[in-house]
Amino acid sequence: xxxxxxxxxxxxxxxxxxxxxxxxxxxxxxxxxxxxxxxxxxxxxxxxxxxxxxxxxxxxxxxxxxxxxxxxxxxxxxxxxxxxxxxxxxxxxxxxxxxxxxxxxxxxxxxxxxxxxxxxxxxxxxxxxxxxxxxxxxxxxxxxxxxxxxxxxxxxxxxxxxxxxxxxxxxxxxxxxxxxxxxxxxxxxxxxxxxxxxxxxxxxxxxxxxxxxxxxxxxxxxxxxxxxxxxxxxxxxxxxxxxxxxxxxxxxxxxxxxxxxxxxxxxxxxxxxxxxxxxxxxxxxxxxxxxxxxxxx
Length: 297
Fold this sequence. Notes:
β1 and β2 form a beta hairpin. By secondary structure, this protein is an alpha+beta fold. It is globular and about 65 Å long. The protein has helices spanning 21-30, 108-113, 154-161, 173-182, 259-266, 277-293, and strands at 2-6, 9-12, 59-65, 70-75, 79-85, 92-98, 125-127, 133-140, 145-146, 195-197, 200-203, 209-213, 219-225, 229-235, 251-257. The strands form 4 sheets. Strands 3-15-5-13-8-7 form a 6-stranded antiparallel sheet. The chain is built from 6 helices and 15 strands. It starts with a strand and ends with a helix. It comes from Dietzia cercidiphylli. This is Urea carboxylase-associated family protein.
């Protein structure tokens, strides 16, 4: 017996009793090799449907994150991340901490201030509170993102849906990100304002923040990491989502080694990316930090 979780992925079922130790063991072993819609695939090279432009043997992380769930993973410098809005209703709230110096973290204010642009898109850097580029957006088929509102909160979700705790049916993004932080030895004070992908917001002429919704199923955004980073992603409805029901869709999270992409960013060789003086200075700050923390061979 099998139960399908998504196209191309099935999970073996079992009728073995778990009321005994041996039955529980047999049940657990029967799950070996199973892939569900809410787990990382280990090793990532076994991901069953890699992108056409990324060989499966290059994947270093592969995971589906359903609505109301979160993930957090430490990724190396030179990693390329691809987030995909699989259903067209996702909102991925993203937080980053420098893995080798976790007190340095994403600073959304500088992320919009330094490049003189409040709207995220290709070429936009995600900056730390130390003026360094943690990641650069290098591809974007969505165009619907937000660096202004932050993740949804428990109080906001209680008011909208009646609940906002992680174990509820409508978890708030900030509560999920806090769980992600705790798993890496961080806490509430380490969780500032975040950015969100796949649900857009624009500022109206009168200054009001207006939801522009999602771009649709299959939209992607790619980022390249300039430093080793703890990346946390929470999938929860955007604070300005007009839907009366909680409907956050699944985000696909893939990562692979792409040192050539980082080299292109460092050298200003990626067309349309990295031409501003402010960006070049922030990249230089990241490179200086990397050199200072890398042992001499």
